[in-house]
């Protein structure tokens, strides 16, 4: 599996799972910095941290609690979401070319910062199994998203 494909899958998951605390959720620009470690697969060069900016609308907060991804493009489902004043936990299942299952745990550090750990088990198309841990920090940058456009809301 290519490094780009892995980061694309993970980026979709993180966009789906960068929730913001009850009463602390803010529409606007959030910056997510992530790092990943993998086992069961040969080392890939340049797998260091990745940073992306996400524009969160009030509609996303009202419906999803924060950023999300279009399940049709990521083929992922988030289930068993438990949101508390101090954080969020959930299960993640993705299907398609690469099948993944795992857990997500987010801690609301303060009104402007969240920390998320995602642990995933994957079944590669070759039948090889591997595990991945993704750690990310999301930081609120401000109400103005500038040139960063929010993802379209699904019609359902």
From TrEMBL:
Pfam families: DUF3617 (PF12276)
Signal peptide location: 1-23
UniProt keyword Signal, yes or no: yes
Domain of life where this protein originates: Bacteria
KW Signal (keyword) present: yes
Keywords: Signal
The protein's name in its UniProt record: DUF3617 family protein
């Amino acid at each position: 599996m290519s490094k780009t494909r892995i980061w694309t899958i993970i980026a979709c998951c993180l966009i789906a799972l960068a929730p913001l605390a009850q009463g602390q959720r803010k529409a606007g620009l959030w910056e997510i910095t992530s790092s990943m470690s993998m086992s069961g697969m040969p080392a890939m060069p340049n797998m260091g941290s990745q940073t992306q900016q996400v524009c969160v609308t009030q509609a996303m907060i009202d419906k999803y609690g924060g950023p999300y991804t279009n399940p049709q493009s990521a083929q992922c489902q988030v289930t068993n979401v438990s949101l508390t004043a101090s954080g969020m936990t959930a299960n993640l299942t993705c299907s398609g070319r690469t099948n993944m299952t795992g857990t997500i745990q987010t801690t609301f550090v303060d009104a402007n910062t969240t920390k998320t750990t995602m642990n995933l088990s994957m079944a590669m198309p070759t039948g090889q199994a591997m595990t991945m841990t993704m750690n990310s920090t999301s930081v609120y940058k401000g109400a103005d998203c500038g040139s960063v456009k929010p993802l379209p809301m699904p019609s359902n």
